Structures are given as structure tokens and as C-alpha cells.
């Protein structure tokens, strides 16, 4: 029998969603006819923006998740899980054009389905993540995750997952890309995740400028960022405003959400702990990626090649 959460949880859900809507009202609007960069693409008009926005996949907190005979919510502790899921989902949708867009999005979203009837088959559902986190990190329900932990968990889950297309996640925890960990033949697309610490508690003017340059790289697939002990999915920027997907909204676990919610937040307000993601589809793509990085001169991370030479 399906369990339901109690009145206290419903009250917290209402408060969280009210705060989400208030924050949306107070946030600066995206100027759809002005220059912006999203997922490494230069966007300059409303049609291009709306067309790209249709492809986005947004995940957020869920209520009444069925797990081991109980109903639970990840509200208050699962934002990094949802950001990690968004990184993977929006990477999977790249280069996929064989299906109609909504069919493709539905198929990808099903890989993350929290619905009790599908969660055991969905390789990246929160139930599967919770189980793997318990085994590897001894994390319990309600424990906070870190960027490295959620992305390493997703890397582990990918090893046994059958998805729309193969994708290999590679985490780099030392603020540099080590080429020996990459399949330079690119038999499958690879998602490179570089965990870094830049600046101090908040980003200063220098690192805001450098972060913007890193978001202009065509292979940019988003970033994990945080402020006020909350995690967000940074997908691009306009002027000095970061364009984010915010997971701090509570939906029911059985709801399929095809529309994405975008917000703006000043880049300078984000903390210096970040994870930059780049989707590399081929050897040629990787050469282009390295060429773009060379111009950035290692301001946030560097590359160590196969001869153990550090450059940039």
C-alpha cells in the first residue's frame, strides 16, 4: 500500500514552494533578446533562446517518494542529488535527434523516475542513488551530499546502466584533467567533471570573469554551484547574472515534468566550491576543447597530458 507523508511534511512543502516562487519574483529576468551563453552556445535572440529552452530537463525535490515501505521527501537535503541528475539528463539529450523532442525527454526522464512502480528499473532514481550512497559512503536518508560524492555515485551507476546512448562520466578531484583517465579514442561520449575551489567564500571580480570564459567553451555542460548552503545547476550567464535551474521546489514523486524553470542569480554570490562539466563527443571535439582551454591559461583548472606534463 502506498504511504503518504504527514501534515508536517505538507506544511514544509508549502513553505518551500512559497519561498521558491518569491525568489523567482525577486530574481532578475532573463533578457531574451540580449546576448547570453547557455551550455556553451551564444544566444542573441528570443527565438534561439526559446528553441534551446525547450530541450532542457529540470529536476527538483519530490514528496511521497516510496522507499522500503515508507514515504519520504528529499526536501532540505537532496538538492545536490537533483543537480547531479540534471547534469546527466541534460548531457544525455545532446546529440540525440532520432526521436521527437518530447518523446526523447520523456525517455530520458524515465531513467530518473522516482515513481515507486518504475524506480527499481530507473538506473538514476533517487532510490538507486540512496542505496549506492549507503554502500559506498555510508550516507543515510537526510544526510547532505557533496558535489564529488553525487557525481562519483552517478559515475558508478553508469557502469551498469543501459541508457539511450552510452556515456562515460569521469570525475577529476584535483582541479586538473588527467588525460590518462580519458579514452582518447572516444568510443563513447565522455562527461568530464572537474571539481575545483576558486576564490574565497564568494567569487571576486577576477573569478567571475574567468568563470564566464569557461562557460563560453562550446563543450560546457553546466556546473554545480552553491550559495547559502544550497546547490544549483548553473547552465550559463547573461552579463554578470548566472542562469540556473533551481531544484528547491517540491513536486509529487509520480509527476512527469517536461517544462524547465530558469532563474538568474548574481555570479558573485556563488561560493568558490564548484564542479565544471564538459561533454566531449569525439576526438575532434576534444581537440577543440583543449584549444579553447589553452586560451584560458589554466585560470581555474589545468590538463596533465599522457607524458605527465602539465600545461595551461
UniProtKB/TrEMBL annotation:
InterPro entries: Peptidase_C54, Peptidase_C54_cat. The keyword Coiled coil does not apply. Its EC number is 3.4.22.-. It comes from the Eukaryota. Keywords: Autophagy, Cytoplasm, Hydrolase, Protease, Protein transport, Thiol protease, Transport. One of its GO terms (molecular function) is protein-phosphatidylethanolamide deconjugating activity. The keyword rRNA-binding does not apply. Residues 48-290 form the Peptidase C54 catalytic domain. GO terms for biological process: aggrephagy; autophagosome assembly; mitophagy; piecemeal microautophagy of the nucleus; protein processing; protein transport. GO terms for cellular component: cytoplasm. It is found in: Cytoplasm. Its main location: cytoplasm. Cysteine protease that plays a key role in autophagy by mediating both proteolytic activation and delipidation of ATG8 family proteins. Belongs to the peptidase C54 family. This is Cysteine protease. It comes from Paramecium pentaurelia.
Amino acid at each position: 500500500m502506498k504511504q503518504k507523508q504527514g501534515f508536517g511534511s505538507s506544511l514544509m512543502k508549502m513553505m518551500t514552494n512559497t519561498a521558491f516562487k518569491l525568489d523567482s519574483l525577486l530574481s532578475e529576468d532573463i533578457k531574451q533578446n540580449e546576448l547570453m551563453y547557455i551550455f556553451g552556445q551564444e544566444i542573441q535572440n528570443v527565438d534561439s533562446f526559446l528553441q534551446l529552452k525547450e530541450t532542457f530537463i529540470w529536476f527538483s525535490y519530490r514528496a511521497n517518494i516510496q522507499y522500503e515501505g515508507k514515504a519520504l521527501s528529499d526536501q532540505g537535503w537532496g538538492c545536490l542529488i537533483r543537480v547531479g541528475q540534471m547534469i546527466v539528463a541534460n548531457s544525455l539529450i545532446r546529440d540525440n535527434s532520432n526521436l521527437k523532442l518530447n518523446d526523447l525527454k520523456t525517455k530520458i526522464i524515465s531513467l530518473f523516475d522516482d515513481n515507486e512502480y518504475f524506480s527499481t528499473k530507473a538506473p538514476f532514481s533517487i532510490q538507486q542513488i540512496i542505496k549506492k550512497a549507503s554502500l559506498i559512503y555510508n550516507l543515510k536518508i537526510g544526510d547532505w551530499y557533496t558535489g564529488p560524492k553525487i557525481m562519483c555515485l552517478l559515475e558508478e551507476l553508469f557502469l551498469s546502466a543501459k541508457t539511450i546512448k552510452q556515456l562515460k562520466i569521469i570525475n577529476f578531484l584535483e582541479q586538473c584533467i588527467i588525460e590518462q583517465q580519458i579514452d582518447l579514442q572516444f568510443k563513447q561520449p565522455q562527461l568530464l567533471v572537474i571539481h575545483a575551489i576558486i576564490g574565497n567564500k564568494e567569487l571576486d571580480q577576477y573569478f567571475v570573469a574567468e568563470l564566464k570564459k569557461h562557460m563560453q567553451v562550446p563543450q560546457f555542460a553546466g556546473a554545480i554551484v552553491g550559495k547559502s548552503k544550497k546547490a544549483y545547476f548553473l547552465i550559463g550567464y547573461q552579463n554578470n547574472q548566472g542562469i540556473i535551474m533551481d531544484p528547491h521546489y517540491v513536486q509529487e514523486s509520480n509527476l512527469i515534468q517536461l517544462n524547465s524553470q530558469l532563474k538568474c542569480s548574481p555570479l558573485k554570490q556563488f561560493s568558490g566550491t564548484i564542479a565544471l562539466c564538459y561533454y566531449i563527443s569525439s576526438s575532434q571535439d576534444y581537440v577543440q576543447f583543449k584549444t579553447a582551454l589553452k586560451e584560458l591559461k589554466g585560470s581555474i583548472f589545468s590538463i596533465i597530458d599522457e607524458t605527465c606534463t602539465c600545461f595551461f
